């Protein structure tokens, strides 16, 4: 951090100290900035659980920091009430000065200008093999041209641990769907994806670019199950509404292996349309019924939300989708 930051922090802490009783002056000098932010958010939320959510930490962690604040300031600060926490007179007295110091510190610590060509760091992205092929491969091409020294660590995504991994700084971005994205993380819509059926070009049964429902259900099918062992998916849910079912014979762990299987056998598969485009020796066949597609979103944590480098990376990922003729939905960010 810059010298200006520490000078500004010391100046404003001294101003806060002037508002305190002599009894708490010495203790306040040992407070760190994190405790001041906890106090400020507790004043806003009047609830430990909601404060923990905003801070992206556990409820016990917030309770522990509140205990430190109480000890340092020699005041209970917040008292449990019927509809939340009630601030004491001392807390009300400190609320405005502390909020002011935090706002001024944020202004003092102005972000350093981000120059992509000079950046040297590693960004970690969690994705499925679908997202790797459709989004990350073209993104990496753009990144190598615009920021050649940024390294990218791509990891297979585990939906259930994404929030924890982001909180611990183990991953920076995740490519997910709205129903799998943790609600406490930030997200931006990238595009809407649809499904198509694919078979090998010389398939003996499927001629042309269409088939009827009976033919579709008679064929042997393969699908992708990232968790393994699943023999049904969105396609089967759609068929169920028609009182029909297909013959799923193979469950594969990735779309890469699935594509190779379809090229070398008479199996067929229902896959995301953008993944099917450009696949050698495969042809797309229109589905004889409607299968609901999915939305792809970029997910990140509050800890990187305001950092210039990560703002730039988010924009590059989104812009890459547009350059690939992916029609983005109206930009939705939370």
TrEMBL record:
GO molecular function: DNA binding; DNA-binding transcription factor activity
PROSITE patterns (UniProt xref): HTH_LYSR (PS50931)
Recorded family membership: Belongs to the LysR transcriptional regulatory family.
All residue ranges annotated as the HTH lysR-type domain in the record: 31-88
Keywords: DNA-binding, Transcription, Transcription regulation
InterPro entries with a match to the protein in the record: LysR-type_TF, LysR_HTH_N, LysR_subst-bd, WH-like_DNA-bd_sf, WH_DNA-bd_sf
Protein name in the entry: LysR family transcriptional regulator
Pfam families given in the database record: HTH_1, LysR_substrate
